[in-house]
Amino acid sequence: MIFRQLFEPESSTYTYLFGNRETGEALLIDPVLEMVERDLEAVQELGLALAYTLETHIHADHVTSACRLRSLTGCKVAYPSMDDLPCADIGVSEMAPLSMGAISFHPLYTPGHTETHHCYLVDVPGAIRVFTGDALLIDGCGRTDFQGGDSAALYRSIHDKLFSLPADTLVFPAHDYQQRRVSTVAQERDRNARLGSGRSLADFQRIMSELDLPYPKRIDVAVPANRLCGDCPEEDYIRLQEPEGPSMQG
Q1: Which residues, in sequence order, are CB contacts of 221 under 8 Å at separation 6+?
Q2: Which CATH number characterizes residue 35's domain?
Q3: How far is C-alpha 29 from the chain's CA centre?
Q4: Which of 64, 160, 243, 246 has the most CB atoms around it within 10 Å of its CB?
Q5: Nearest of 143, 132, 83, 140 to residue 108 by alpha carbon
Q6: Domain count for the chain
């Protein structure tokens, strides 16, 4: 398996590139519209063809490049089936994983940051990896105050679905605002400031209710565009050039 972690600085978003040399295919998790050329160059340099894009959820801080990449490469666009997006080619769920040759992306339904958020577990020789989107971040978590967010649901998702994974599972989040790249389930269980060290549900709900986060600058453009798999009108794309602060983590 080929694996690359790519970073978009305006929204502090990580995009993950997977490649399968046996099939010649590549997959991108959570690609960002402004990074289309970079991502295609990375795929081409590896001698691969983009076969899939895969989203963890409908993002509020950036527009996905899924639609643009499909128009350029013919790749398939995959979203959680719960989103029920007509623009998606593939709907994934816990009962319907996505496979690229011998590499399987196993969805874990993890609501709380958004109502339909999913993480993806990838078990390959050498390491188990979980791609946690905005649910579990390094020493933090995603906010829970819009898009059907719910702090109790997020607490259960993380404790029941993520903290129950093997301790050495590598944790790759969708964002980090301090340029940290990877954690482990053991580290987050022990040290996560919002969820670790046996913190109770009541404590977590109090922490989340007291964050007092600003309204995300891009949400009014990003959410409608992402419901169209990133089909973004030009005038809205121009508005996206305004810098975005780290409001998603809080």
Answers
A1: 63, 232, 236, 239, 240
A2: 3.60.15.10
A3: 7
A4: 64
A5: 132
A6: 1
